[in-house]
Amino acid sequence: MRAGRLTVTVAAILVVIGGTTAYVVTAATDAKQSGGTEQVTQAKVGDLLFVDLAGGQNRVEKLADGGARTQMELACQRFYAAGGTSVCLKLSGPGPTYAAEVSRGGKPIKTIPLPGIPSRAKVSQSGNVVSWTSFVTGDSYSVPGGFSTRTGYFDVRTGETVESLEHFAATVEGALLTASDANYWGLTVGSDDRTFYATLASGGFTWLVKGDLTTKSVTSLRRDAECPSLSPDGTKVAYKKRIGRLGPWDLAVLDLATNTEKRLPGTAGVDDQATWLTQTELAFAAVPKDAKLPAVHVVPADGSQDARVLIQDATSPSPVM
Prior knowledge:
By secondary structure, the protein is an all-beta fold. It contains 1 helix and 28 strands. It has one helix spanning 10-14, and strands at residues 33-34, 37-38, 48-52, 59-63, 69-75, 78-82, 85-93, 97-104, 107-114, 117-123, 129-137, 147-155, 161-162, 169-172, 175-176, 183-189, 195-202, 205-212, 217-223, 226-230, 236-242, 249-255, 260-263, 275-276, 281-286, 295-300, 308-311, 314-319. Strands 15-14-19-18-17-16 form a 6-stranded mixed beta sheet, with no helix packed on it. The protein has a 4-stranded antiparallel beta sheet with strand order 5-4-3-28, with no helix packed on it. Strands 6-7-8-9 form a 4-stranded antiparallel beta sheet, with no helix packed on it. The protein is globular, with a radius of gyration of 18 Å. The two termini are 36 Å apart. Mean pLDDT is 85; it is low at 1-44 and 140-146.
């Protein structure tokens, strides 16, 4: 393991438990029983997949038009699907040990061992590039036994598996980064299956970086932006951003053409890599007030309305693409 990784707080570990073009429906209703109370929500979203946390089984389910729910065979800590490819970050053995299971057309094609607890998962729109982030223990000499992150990806076309981005050449605020504590998380890949965005951390700071999977290089864009998610048309990036110096995160959306940032109301407390359900709406997991488990929320990307709960006791929202 590489020495000098940036430590990730234990609190972040504790909240981690979690594809055809989505079409718009007038109402998607979740009428699932939760703790004896019927939970009903309405939102203008398309069909989506998610990880159901109720009962501790972490089963992948589909929420369809009209509120019908279908449980699948997969049990995942994190899940994502796009372009006919899906990735399931899951338990794979005692210890515990974890793996990323990649499927194409519903059939497993690759199982990749993970170095730690599953945290983030994405698939590019084409289904060609699968990415993941996991928490790794004992991987920092700044805090003995501390936590850090490891981010990798798998190219379905070539079979290339990259276990970590830490060997990528990084230019941060105009200078080549040579520090040994470079740490990445939250990889999101563009429609060209080459351009990507991620979080880079070093020296106690975090940056939103833009990178190239072919040249294996990254360049910083701005500080204090974590877990980015690129919009379907590639014009915007959503990410979590701290409220104040020591406060919780909320979601923000960056317009890449104008470099303007808009914070989204009702998203305080988010600790997730958001998902673009459509070009105008985002989904993310966060723990609602007075709840014990995360719920899937939806929020307009233009900040016109507060976020609202769509599915109780759920995480890892993924549009059916």
